[in-house]
């Protein structure tokens, strides 16, 4: 019995991955190159309409009808991988990504980009982090402060776009965070990550940076990019609430509960005046609430864990738990004095500076220390 083959529908130029003895030779090519060379698989929903006989019009009559899939399978393709083949392919991809990242960090591969010193007005790159939740913290004076826990997971610089390629004003860096499976991403994203020498990322964010603050693509970014006492801006997508009325969405007080009111207790009332005889654009009315990007400005970094790449940021931020957020230096002018002389252009793990596992703000109480001293 012939051994089962993998990816038999990806085109003639893609090597057939099998579970036979020739597995080692079949896996010699990169998965990225396989995807870049392979032609797109044609699913049933993307094919042209088929001609089927129209029995209600009589014998010999045909009409053009679209082929509707009646399959209850949860996959898109007609030919599926077995569980054993799928597990084998994922193990191979994981091993290839590990080797790819290790080869990218080799200092002998190519020359690093020049590093400059920080100057007032410099704009650094930011991070892509995962929101883990919220917890309390206490200052040395006994005040309770809510902090949001953000973890930086597999954050790398993916690409540099010059101002001519972007908008003609400033340079930008594309940063990706949290490794994901390559089976659910486009060929453009896979090629961008391959050129950077990193695995595919779940979220890619754009950061405007100064010319002397550029970071080489493929460089890993850590939580030590920020230090306690600095202020950051956090951008994330808010939790979707669905279609809501004006009382929940905009905080309207509604209509009276009694005195002739019927089925209008939670309604908005008049939406415009009779003079203009129109409803102005932007009028607050019922609609979908949440699921939009919001930015919280001027959040203080209370604590940094350099071992697990965790940031403790003041207050609450948009988004649900385990969502990906964008963290960058604040743009508030009254907070810029606290962000002077940061790690520039970022923190490099191979540098001469050795950091402790925990970094605390000078006002934050460390529970490893005694609370009462004599």
Automatic annotation (TrEMBL):
Transmembrane segments: none annotated. GO terms for cellular component: mitochondrial inner membrane; mitochondrial large ribosomal subunit. Keywords: Mitochondrion, Ribonucleoprotein, Ribosomal protein, Transit peptide. The keyword Nucleotidyltransferase does not apply. SUPFAM superfamilies: Translation proteins. Gene3D superfamilies: Translation factors. One of its GO terms (molecular function) is structural constituent of ribosome. It is found in: Mitochondrion. Belongs to the universal ribosomal protein uL3 family. NCBIfam families: L3_bact (TIGR03625). This is Large ribosomal subunit protein uL3m.
């Amino acid at each position: 019995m012939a051994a089962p083959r993998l990816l038999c529908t990806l085109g003639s130029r893609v090597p057939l991955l099998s579970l036979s003895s020739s597995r080692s030779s079949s896996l010699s090519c990169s998965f990225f190159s396989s995807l870049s060379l392979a032609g797109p698989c044609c699913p049933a929903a993307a094919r042209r309409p088929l001609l089927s006989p129209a029995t209600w019009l009589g014998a010999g009559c045909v009409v053009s009808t679209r082929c509707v899939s009646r399959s209850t399978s949860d996959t898109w393709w007609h030919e599926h991988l077995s569980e054993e083949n799928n597990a084998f392919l994922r193990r191979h991809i994981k091993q290839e990504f590990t080797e790819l990242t290790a080869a990218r960090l080799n200092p002998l591969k190519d020359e690093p980009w020049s590093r400059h010193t920080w100057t007032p007005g410099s704009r650094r790159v930011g991070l892509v982090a995962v929101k883990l939740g919220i917890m309390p913290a206490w200052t040395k004076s006994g005040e309770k402060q809510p902090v949001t826990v953000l973890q930086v997971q597999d954050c790398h610089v993916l690409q540099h776009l010059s101002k001519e390629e972007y908008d003609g004003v400033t340079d930008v860096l594309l940063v990706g965070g949290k490794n994901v499976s390559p089976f659910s991403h486009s060929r453009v994203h896979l090629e961008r990550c391959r050129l950077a020498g990193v695995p595919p990322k779940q979220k890619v964010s754009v950061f405007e940076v100064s010319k002397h603050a550029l970071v080489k693509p493929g460089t890993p970014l850590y939580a030590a990019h920020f230090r306690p006492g600095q202020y950051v801006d956090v951008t994330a997508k808010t939790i979707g609430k669905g279609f809501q009325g004006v009382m929940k969405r905009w905080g309207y007080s509604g209509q009276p509960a009694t005195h002739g009111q019927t089925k209008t207790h939670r309604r908005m009332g008049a939406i415009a005046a009779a003079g203009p005889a129109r409803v102005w654009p932007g009028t607050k009315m019922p609609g979908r609430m949440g699921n939009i990007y919001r930015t919280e400005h001027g959040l203080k970094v209370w604590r940094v864990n350099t071992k697990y790449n965790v940031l403790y940021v003041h207050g609450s931020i948009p988004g649900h738990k385990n969502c990906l957020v964008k963290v960058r230096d604040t743009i508030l002018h009254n907070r810029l004095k606290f962000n002077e002389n940061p790690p520039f252009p970022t923190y490099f793990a191979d540098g001469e500076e050795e950091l402790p596992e925990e970094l605390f703000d000078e006002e934050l109480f460390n529970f490893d220390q005694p609370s009462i001293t004599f």
